[in-house]
Automatic annotation (TrEMBL):
It comes from Azospirillum endophyticum. This is ABC transporter ATP-binding protein. Keywords: Amino-acid transport, ATP-binding, Nucleotide-binding, Transport. The keyword Transport applies. The keyword Transport applies. CDD domains: ABC_TM1139_LivF_branched.
Length: 233
């Protein structure tokens, strides 16, 4: 579904990604791991086209997307839950969701307002509240709901459980588990190794802008040396 080959990218003159390669099969959950500042968010930004790709290939469902601007990547079916959530502060919860709604043209859309209310009952209760009046957890739920409203083929989540209370984190992990059971393809960045290992099928580890390890979650769970070297656990 998504295949990244030897991707290089950076900001201005400064190169951040030197050689990132990974691939996600349809219906798979892949976790991108690595310590702070190693290039995880930069990888996601380069996939989405939010920053220029310098070299290498990014292929989505058989199409090269490495020259596409973000709106075209999104239209092909890549839904992003960005770091920091970035919801529209002056729109209501419902308006935030409707603003991004998009069908994929393959029969009835899986994700509608009703479906999002069912996944996150809390959002239904808060539907008329402005984005900037929500708690952090509610904002994160809204960011996920908003990405789902695009009916993505691939959902990308950047630190979706960061800075949330444990009970809200648990709710987000449970939602991701539900999405996985439904066959949603997911690429996620998260620092919580044990939760990642429970959810993800496969993991890729990056260090200073290079993929240094990839394998199944079970393999990473056993690879204590990799964990100690690259994840500082
Ligand atoms: N907008 C930017 N301009 C310049 N340099 C940046 C920018 N964003 C990130 N960087 C640099 O790129 C490197 C990789 O950052 P990135 O945010 O991709 O790391 P990360 O692995 O996602 O880490 P974190 O877990 O801290 O989010 C860091 O050295 C960072 O300082």
């Amino acid at each position: 579904m998504l295949k990244i080959d030897n991707l290089t990218a950076g900001y201005g003159q400064s190169q951040v990604l030197f050689d990132v390669s990974l691939s996600i099969e349809a219906g798979q959950v892949l976790a991108l791991m690595g310590r702070n500042g190693m290039g995880k968010t930069t990888t996601i930004s380069a996939v989405m086209g939010l920053i220029p790709r310098w070299g290498g290939g990014v292929n989505f469902n058989g199409r090269g997307i490495d020259r596409m601007p973000p709106h075209r990547v999104a239209r092909l079916g890549v839904g992003l839950v960005p770091e920091g959530r970035q919801i529209f502060p002056t729109l209501t919860v419902e308006e935030n969701l409707v603003a991004t709604a998009a069908a994929r043209g393959e029969g009835p859309a899986r994700w509608t307002l009703e479906a999002v209310w069912k996944l996150f009952p809390r959002l239904r209760e808060r539907r008329r509240n402005l984005g900037n009046r929500l708690s952090g957890g509610e904002q994160q739920m809204l960011a996920i709901g908003r990405a789902l409203m695009t009916n993505p083929r691939l959902l990308i989540l950047d630190e979706a459980t960061e800075g949330l209370a444990p009970v809200i984190r648990a709710e987000i992990w449970a939602v991701l588990e539900t999405l996985k059971r439904e066959g949603q393809s997911i690429l996620l960045v998260d620092k919580n190794l044990s939760a990642v290992l429970r959810l993800a099928d496969a993991c890729a580890v990056i260090e200073k802008g290079r993929t240094v390890w990839s394998g199944t979650s079970a393999e990473l769970g056993r690879a204590t040396e990799i964990q100690e070297t690259y994840l500082h656990i």
